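User: My instructor asked us to take a sequence, write out its structure as tokens, and then describe one feature of it. I'm not sure where to start. Here is the sequence I was given:
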Amino acid sequence: MLDWIYSLLSHDLGIDLGTANTLVFVRGKGIMIREPSVVARHRRSKQVIAIGREAKKMLGKTPQTIEALRPLKDGVIADFDATAAMLTHYIQLVHQEPKRPGLPRIPRPKVVIGIPSGVTEVERRAVQEAAIMAGARHAILIEEPMAAAIGAGLPIQESRGSFVCDIGGGTCEIAVLSLGGIVVNRSIRIAGDEMDEAIVNFIRLKYSLLIGQPTAEDVKLTVGSAYPVDKSDRQAVVRGRDIETGLPKSIRVNEAEIREALAGIVHQIIEAVAETVEETPPELISDIMEHGIVLAGGGSKLLGIDKLIATELKMPVWITDDPQTAVVRGCGKLLDDAELLRKVKVAARKA
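Assistant: Let's start with the prediction itself. The structure tokens for your sequence are:
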């Protein structure tokens, strides 16, 4: 009862704490924050200089006294202090105290956070501790494929089988859901970051050109594809350092080359989806054949990946609306459905 009263007075939050991006859903207002998961700080004092987009601009460009880093790797916390600072910054942005003296303090928010389904107990506890340290009164964890399914509007509480593949920055979350629970799931740490790394390696081997991860990400977004969906041959100019001469060099790459670079990573994701299908009970397979595999996450925006999965597995595949926000929208919906939240949560902790 007390928690319900606090929820009326505070701005409860749903957070997708992603490897590449952090999204924050504010109850009653929608998605208020969509920022890169990057923190810039002084190396010695650990004083935070920038968070989000401003920090991302510094990646690969900092002097020795400053470090720009991504505090999450493969969907889990790699740098606890930086993660706590980032969460604190975002919670304070949407949960500001009243400026006029004498007004009552706003209760600290309840926070629902999406986490990869394959994390350990220690990794779960680290996320909860970071959220509590950042100012949450109650930190509740939910597995990302479940959150993505809820965000996509799938009937997860029915006896019908639903298949979700959430391709994020650090992990690919695959799950079959039915009757409010996960029947079969698989979490692989192969996703958007590995695609970027594949482009870096491809360009280094083929053109003897060194580029950074931000440049590779830009190339992926500009001309990346998993399947030839049309006859247009998109191209992009890539600038980096020539390995042989050490001097600056520019090259032009086309869509077919980047598709070749990404092929290995994309096929590993398809193999994981196929293995999950093989483990799915036959009665649920018939539901999935009828209603299809649902793709979510930023990685599903790779051009043609839905068509390639459909071709390889001979099953219908569709991408949910605004796939990058599916997890955070699911967390947001759970803020208004206490009964469903009680069923699907994997861990909860109060301050």
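For the description part of your assignment, you could build on this observation: The chain has three domains: 2-144+327-350, 147-190+263-324, 192-261. Try explaining in your own words what that tells you about the chain.
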